[in-house]
């Protein structure tokens, strides 16, 4: 039995509320159980120096946690400086979202996805990727409606989910109680068509087997497919 009472292949309740920021070109609040992340997309008519005069666009990301996103207060990173964990996560979000992007179709402009964790209960990077794609989609829709891009630069959905081995069993979408005690922890980033973008997997104690990895991958395929459906419902609304 999982601490939450969920089945091994069950996601936490997922909701994606769009249009939560009055000023951002695209925004959503994604809730995956008790993990809540505000995702905003900001359009800028510029690209990093290494892309100037190439005709290619860029999507990047920034990630942060509010001081009371967790059970005890964390000092703001604006005061203490970014941790290696924060830098690693925001690079992952950027890489993941660019995987579903035609940068030539986007043109020489940048979209920055800001992912601010309001409340954390495991899986914040995965929620940031899934919600970040929705914010990106909404921003791109504005570009297309204004006629600023001729072809849709988003080639596919991108979503992410965690899996792990907890109590000897492969489980989908770990919350903090499971993640903190898991023998194996993994994050899977996938496209809407089922393509693999990135896998992060680590044994926290004993090694894990190929059969256990295959079981986690199968769970991730099921979970990301459900998350993609949630993305579709959010942008349709």
UniProtKB/TrEMBL annotation:
<feature type="binding site">
    <location>
        <begin position="123"/>
        <end position="125"/>
    </location>
    <ligand>
        <name>phosphate</name>
    </ligand>
</feature>
<dbReference type="GO" id="GO:0009022">
    <property type="term" value="F:tRNA nucleotidyltransferase activity"/>
</dbReference>
<keyword id="KW-0548">Nucleotidyltransferase</keyword>
<keyword id="KW-0820">tRNA-binding</keyword>
<feature type="binding site">
    <location>
        <position position="85"/>
    </location>
    <ligand>
        <name>phosphate</name>
    </ligand>
</feature>
<dbReference type="InterPro" id="IPR015847">
    <property type="entry name" value="ExoRNase_PH_dom2"/>
</dbReference>
<dbReference type="GO" id="GO:0000175">
    <property type="term" value="F:3'-5'-RNA exonuclease activity"/>
</dbReference>
<dbReference type="InterPro" id="IPR020568">
    <property type="entry name" value="Ribosomal_Su5_D2-typ_SF"/>
</dbReference>
<dbReference type="GO" id="GO:0008033">
    <property type="term" value="P:tRNA processing"/>
</dbReference>
<keyword id="KW-0808">Transferase</keyword>
<keyword id="KW-0698">rRNA processing</keyword>
<comment type="function">
    <text>Phosphorolytic 3'-5' exoribonuclease that plays an important role in tRNA 3'-end maturation. Removes nucleotide residues following the 3'-CCA terminus of tRNAs; can also add nucleotides to the ends of RNA molecules by using nucleoside diphosphates as substrates, but this may not be physiologically important. Probably plays a role in initiation of 16S rRNA degradation (leading to ribosome degradation) during starvation.</text>
</comment>
<comment type="similarity">
    <text>Belongs to the RNase PH family.</text>
</comment>
<dbReference type="Pfam" id="PF01138">
    <property type="entry name" value="RNase_PH"/>
</dbReference>
<dbReference type="InterPro" id="IPR018336">
    <property type="entry name" value="RNase_PH_CS"/>
</dbReference>
<keyword id="KW-0694">RNA-binding</keyword>
<dbReference type="InterPro" id="IPR027408">
    <property type="entry name" value="PNPase/RNase_PH_dom_sf"/>
</dbReference>
<dbReference type="GO" id="GO:0031125">
    <property type="term" value="P:rRNA 3'-end processing"/>
</dbReference>
<dbReference type="InterPro" id="IPR036345">
    <property type="entry name" value="ExoRNase_PH_dom2_sf"/>
</dbReference>
<dbReference type="InterPro" id="IPR050080">
    <property type="entry name" value="RNase_PH"/>
</dbReference>
<dbReference type="GO" id="GO:0000049">
    <property type="term" value="F:tRNA binding"/>
</dbReference>
<protein>
    <recommendedName>
        <fullName>Ribonuclease PH</fullName>
        <ecNumber>2.7.7.56</ecNumber>
    </recommendedName>
</protein>
<dbReference type="InterPro" id="IPR002381">
    <property type="entry name" value="RNase_PH_bac-type"/>
</dbReference>
<feature type="domain" description="Exoribonuclease phosphorolytic">
    <location>
        <begin position="11"/>
        <end position="139"/>
    </location>
</feature>
<dbReference type="GO" id="GO:0016075">
    <property type="term" value="P:rRNA catabolic process"/>
</dbReference>
<keyword id="KW-0819">tRNA processing</keyword>
<dbReference type="Pfam" id="PF03725">
    <property type="entry name" value="RNase_PH_C"/>
</dbReference>
<dbReference type="InterPro" id="IPR001247">
    <property type="entry name" value="ExoRNase_PH_dom1"/>
</dbReference>
<comment type="subunit">
    <text>Homohexameric ring arranged as a trimer of dimers.</text>
</comment>
<feature type="domain" description="Exoribonuclease phosphorolytic">
    <location>
        <begin position="158"/>
        <end position="222"/>
    </location>
</feature>
């Amino acid at each position: 039995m999982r601490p939450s009472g969920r089945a091994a292949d069950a996601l936490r309740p997922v909701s994606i509320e769009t249009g939560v920021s009055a000023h951002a070109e695209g925004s959503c609040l994604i809730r995956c159980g008790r993990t809540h992340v505000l995702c905003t997309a900001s359009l800028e008519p510029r690209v990093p120096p290494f892309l100037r005069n190439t005709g290619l666009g860029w999507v990047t990301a920034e990630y942060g946690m509010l001081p009371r996103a967790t059970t005890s207060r964390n000092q703001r990173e604006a005061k203490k400086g970014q941790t290696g964990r924060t830098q690693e996560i925001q690079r992952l979000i950027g890489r993941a979202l660019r995987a579903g992007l035609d940068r030539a179709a986007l043109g020489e402009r940048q979209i920055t996805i800001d992912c601010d964790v309001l409340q954390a209960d495991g899986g914040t990077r995965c929620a940031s990727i899934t919600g970040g794609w929705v914010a990106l989609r909404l921003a791109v829709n504005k570009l297309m409606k204004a006629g600023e891009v001729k072809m849709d630069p988003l080639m596919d959905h991108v979503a992410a989910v965690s899996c792990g081995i907890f109590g000897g069993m492969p489980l989908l979408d770990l919350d903090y109680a499971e993640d903190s005690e898991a023998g194996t922890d993994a994050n899977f980033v996938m496209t809407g068509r089922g393509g693999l973008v990135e896998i992060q997997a680590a044994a926290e104690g004993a090694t894990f087997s190929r059969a256990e990895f295959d079981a986690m991958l199968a769970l991730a395929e099921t979970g990301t497919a459900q998350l993609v459906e949630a993305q579709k419902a959010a942008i349709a609304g």
